[in-house]
Amino acid sequence: MTAEHLNLEAGRKLLAGPCDFVLGVAWLEQLPEADRPEIAFAGRSNVGKSSLINALTGRKTLAKTSNTPGRTQQLNFFDLGGLLYLVDMPGYGYAKVSKAQKAEWDALIRDYLRGRPNLRCVFILVDARHGLKDSDTELMKMLDEAGAAYRIVLTKTDKVKDQKLAFFTEQIETTLKKHAAAYPTILATSSVKSHGLDELKAVIASYA
């Protein structure tokens, strides 16, 4: 069995195992101990973050999904088999919340990303129908400044024709070359069709 197959198997095993909600963090003092590696999922409101987390873990309601932008309002921590924390972050972009609430979210996200010593990677989810938005590049710049590694994950690829998907993929990978903390290639996924999920699971397992 090749190393690639072993990684795929490790990814399937990790994500098929225990995955329990630990706590929701509204301010930094609530963060759990940094006693294991941590990965975080970030993205614009309604990018499909909760759907992707549910698809990866084979559960329908682990992360709450909603058509209402801004449903996730805190850092939600999930324990993957005692080996890894998976963090579901508040969506950014067009969530209909007050300016004060948005400022609180932004401050929480910024402080978390800059100060979490065990954070191994941030997966920035981008809707394959729209490509990178200004709010995505703002987060990328913040992560570059913090020296926090990140990867771009395209979501909802089942809703895009191959030609447009190839265009956005090339465009984004060209942009990533200008960002110091970015992984140079992207992962393309579909929660509905399960496209790319095994590859993403393998990447997640590599941080455990």
Break the fold down into its secondary structure elements and pairings:
Blueprint: H1 3-16, E1 19-25, E2 38-43, H2 49-57, E3 75-80, E4 84-88, H3 99-115, E5 119-127, H4 134-146, E6 150-155, H5 162-176, E7 187-188, H6 197-205
Parallel strand pairs: 2-4, 2-5, 5-6, 6-7
Antiparallel strand pairs: 1-3, 3-4
Question: What does this entry look like structurally?
Answer:
37% of the residues lie in helices and 20% in strands. Mean pLDDT is 88; it is low at 66-71. A 7-stranded mixed sheet has the order 1-3-4-2-5-6-7, sandwiched between helices. Helix 1 (3-16) crosses helix 6 (197-205). It is α/β, with parallel strands linked by helices and 208 residues long.
Structure summary:
By secondary structure, this protein is an alpha/beta fold. The protein contains 6 helices and 7 strands, in the order H-E-E-H-E-E-H-E-H-E-H-E-H.
Query: Number of DSSP helices?
Result: 6
CATH architecture: 3-Layer(aba) Sandwich
Distance between the termini: 21 Å
Number of strands: 7
Structural class: alpha/beta
Give the ordered list of helices and strands.
HEEHEEHEHEHEH
CATH class membership: Alpha Beta
Strand arrangement, largest sheet? 1-3-4-2-5-6-7
Number of self-contained structural domains: 1
